[in-house]
Design brief:
mainly alpha; two-stranded antiparallel ribbon; about 5% strand
Length: about 280
């Protein structure tokens, strides 16, 4: 009887894991398709997409911060984020110094309104709100910059960065699940292993070579440097968000994506990688 119960329990766990994997896979495919379509269709669809991603991720981030400190202004932060992204897009299109000034002028509202709302907690409230803008909004603005070359919309570069991040995340997860033994940072992310990281590196470098072979928009060196940047900074991006979540004692940043969690859970690597890709490309031209 006990053996039968153990068998049924084991079967139930297997079915649960397979169901969870199925839901996770379907959600991943659908969201990846939406992301790719938003980039390829045109600049306006991507602008709408990044406004949604940025505002949702920022909302989730502020909720995480509020678990540890109630002194943060989510609405003020999100409004500023939307104004900054729209202003930045306008600057990229027009190259107007006035619009560049407007790009970051909304930030001055944060300490002023924080003072009105929080009074003696103005510094803590302002820092927490600004932290979200630096963490999420700056990479979002730079992703828009990567889409344009001398005012012309060219989506391939950003699409490559996104695909390489996905390749790294997926293959690091698969390799780690199959071969992972050596924990990377168990106190922050218990499931991450060095074997998984190594698998992600190999497949990401290989993917960048395949992209260069079929879409030689950049030199092989540039493709390689983008891949290296992804593998260096994707994991710290994931670990940083894991640190915030562990401090707040929560598993996922949200539940908008079944099987994946929140938008911040899916874009944590993206927000860390994009600024460094932008810098690398500026350096190497």
């Amino acid at each position: 009887m006990l053996k039968l119960q153990n068998t049924l329990l084991s079967s139930s766990k297997t079915i649960y894991k397979l169901t969870k994997l199925y839901i996770r896979s379907i959600t991943g495919i659908v969201f990846a398709s939406i992301s790719i379509a938003a980039i390829l269709i045109g600049e306006y669809t991507y602008l709408i997409f990044i406004l949604f991603v940025c505002s949702t991720a920022l909302f989730e981030f502020y909720n995480i911060i509020r678990k540890n400190s109630k002194y943060v202004n989510p609405i003020l932060g999100i409004i500023n984020a939307l104004l900054i992204i729209i202003s930045a897009y306008s600057y990229i299109k027009t190259n107007s110094n006035l619009i560049l000034l407007l790009c970051f002028s909304p930030i001055v509202l944060i300490p002023i309104i924080s003072f009105i709302i929080s009074k003696n907690k103005i510094i803590l409230s302002s820092v927490n709100t600004l932290l979200g803008l630096i963490y999420i909004v700056v990479p979002s603005v730079l992703s828009l910059s990567l889409l344009f070359e001398e005012g012309t919309y060219k989506p391939i570069l950003l699409l490559e960065v996104l695909v390489l991040i996905w390749v790294f995340d997926i293959m690091a997860y698969v390799t780690g699940s199959l071969l992972g033994k050596t924990k990377m940072v168990p106190k922050i992310s218990p499931k991450k292993t060095w074997e998984g990281f190594a698998g992600g590196v190999v497949f990401t470098i290989a993917a960048s070579f395949l992209i260069w072979k079929h879409i030689p928009t950049l030199s092989l060196l540039n493709h390689f440097l983008i891949a290296v940047t992804v593998v260096i900074f994707a994991t710290p991006g994931d670990l940083l968000e894991s640190y915030f979540k562990r401090k707040a004692n929560i598993k996922d940043s949200g539940n908008i994506l079944p099987g994946h969690g929140g938008i911040l859970d899916r874009f944590d690597s993206f927000f860390m990688v994009i600024p460094f890709v932008w810098v690398v490309l500026k350096i190497v031209g």
